[in-house]
Amino acid sequence: MALWVGAAGALLFVLVFLVDGGSRPGYSSARQPISALALGRRGWIQTTNFIVTGSAITLGAVELVLDGPSILLGVALTGFGLGLVASGVFRMDPMLGYPPGAPVGIPERHSVQHRRHDLAGAVVFLSLPLAAAIGAFTLPSTPWRIVSAGLAIALLAGFGWFGRAWEQVSPRLGLIQRAVVVPGWGWLAALFTAQALGQNG
Which residues make beta-bridge pairs with 98? Predict the structure, then answer.
């Protein structure tokens, strides 16, 4: 059951930020990061998304620790899930033009809450490629190992690309982040599903 909850959490996270970001007035999914959705009057939606889906993924990850192909894989994904929860507890500062009226760039000084959000984000962005790399060595089937290895490399490159886009205040910042997040979270949902089917089979 916990693995199905984890899979649903990964898919729900993507669905919520795509729908909310695409329908929110004054927000640009192409330019602004997912975390900015936690700001403004509708910010509670993304805050809840971070916390609920992070908790669901953590629950699935703990099941992998207890009864999965690799304890290390489960531990890495537990860190990933908890990082998402912390990303919801600590919001980023207004910037990059959102909410409307916020600085169009990135301020030099940040609040303590923003710095904690950044730290949580670092955990998220490092633990997922780490989990994929562990999966490349520990998952039982060759196709899963190959896909996981390719994903680990792609995620590291993608998150590096996102980091450079952030420093350059790229107008495609949000699009770059989504291009990395969607396949990463998709792999996680597929992994939880495959493990749940394997346990039930």
Answer: 95
